[in-house]
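In the current project phase, our protein records have gained a structure token line. A sample record follows, to show the layout:
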Amino acid sequence: PYKSSIRQIMGTHLPLELEKNEDGEKFLWGHLSRANPQWKSFKDNDEVMAIFLGPHTYNSSSWYDHVNVPTWNYIAVPMYGKVKIAEGEKLREMLKPGVYEAVSQKPVSVHTMPDAYVQKEMKGIVGFEIAIERIEAKWKLSKNRDAANYQQIISELEKLNNFNAQQIAAEMSKRRDIESIK
């Protein structure tokens, strides 16, 4: 009899923090709602991937001096590592206010809230750490275009009133200078 070995893959958009442990090793940490079933797949030391998406934008093929298909330029950083659930005091320490509350006129902190309240709220989340094993920077910035079309893409992106387009144009300008030096 045939048995399916298809594993359900899940993804959740979450804020993650980059930290270093006492040995100087980098890791990501975060938490998700206990109601989110994804945490149940976090068996200690399973490999996971976190993707950090940078600027990205559509490129119209009308910008080229020849017939071609439209495309998308982007910058992304996938990070791979082993996941481990964090509980108790470890989780509470992860919930430090950090830079986000620093800009508040009246910053709050789980360390100054009533302990019973914090303990009750912590039951609704699952903390985790990802020991980073591999980082891959990926980008597609029209490197395959000739100089004239490459510059045309930059010019067209700069005309757009769009943050991502502006960022991609700036990165393309920097990279073209780097590529032409090689």
